[in-house]
Amino acid sequence: MEPYKFWSSGFCIFLMCYLIGGIPFGYLIGKFNGLDIRRHGSHNIGATNVRRVLGGDWGTICFALDFLKGLIPVVYIGAALGAEWYVGFEWGEIFAVVGTVLGHIFPWTLKFRGGKGVATSLGAVLGVAFWPVLWCAVVWYLTFLKTRIVAMASIAAAVTMPLVGLVMYFFRLGRIHGPAVILMLILSGLIIYRHKDNILRMREGRENTFHKQHRVSRGTPAR
C-alpha cells in the first residue's frame, strides 16, 4: 500500500467525519428553545447540561443525537469507504472515530469550543467494538446511581472502555484490533482531560449532584 494513498484517503474520511461531528446538537436544541445553552448551567453544549437547563426530554434527545453523530459516520463512512479506498475498514473506522469525536469537542461551527465527548465517543466506539461500550454503559449507570454525579459516572465509564478493550484484545475476544485499543486509550484520556474542572470541583466537594439541578426557564440565565 502506498503511504500517500493511505494517508490521503484517511484524511478524507477524517475530514468528512469531523464536519459531521461539528454539528452542535446541544446548541441547536438550545436555540430552538430560545436560549444559548452556553450561557446557562455549566455552559456546556452536551446532553447533561441540556438536561439540566431544559429538562429530561431534551437531554435525552441531545444524548441520542450526539450518540448517533458518533456511530453513523463510523459505520457508513469509516468502515464503508475504508474498505473501498486504500486504508481498509479497520483503519477507516479509526480515522472516522477520531474525526467525529474531535469534531464534537472542537467544533468548527462554534469556534472550536464544544462538548466533553462522552456520548459521541460511545457512539463512535460502538461502531468499532460493541462490548467495551456496553460495559461503559453499565459502569456509568451504576456509578451514577451511587453518586448522582454525572461527571464521576462519565470518568468511570471512560476508564472502563480501554480496560475492557485491552482484556478482549489480549484474550482474542470479539473483533478488537490493536489500533482500536490504542484509540480507546486516547479517547479515555481525552474525556478525562475534558472533565478536569469537574475533577477539581469533586475534590473540593463543590460538584453538583444531579438531583440538585433545576430546569431554567427560557431566556433566564442560570445562577
Q: Strand percentage, roughly?
A: under 5%
Determine the oligomeric state from the structure: single chain
Task: Give the end-to-end Cα distance, rounded to a whole number of Å.
Answer: 57 Å
Sheet bearing the most strands, described?
A: none
Helix content: 55-70%
> In total, how many domains does the architecture comprise?
2
Total strands: 0
- Order of helix and strand elements from N to C terminus: HHHHHHHHHH
Mean pLDDT: 90
Secondary structure class reads mainly alpha
Question: Quick one: overall form?
Answer: globular
Outline the low-pLDDT stretches: 219-223
Task: Give a structural overview.
With about 220 residues, this protein is mostly helical. It has 2 domains: about 1-130, no CATH class; about 130-210. About 70% of the residues lie in helices and about 0% in strands. The radius of gyration is 18 Å and the shape is globular. Residues about 220-223 have low confidence and may be disordered.
Task: Produce the secondary structure layout.
Layout: H1 3-21, H2 25-32, H3 47-54, H4 56-84, H5 88-105, H6 118-126, H7 130-147, H8 150-170, H9 178-194, H10 196-203
Helix pairs in contact: 1-4, 1-5, 3-4, 4-5, 4-6, 5-6, 5-9, 6-7, 7-8, 8-9
Features:
70% helix, 10 helices, globular, mainly alpha, 223 residues, 2 domains
Task: Describe what is shown at a glance.
The chain is mainly α and 223 residues long.
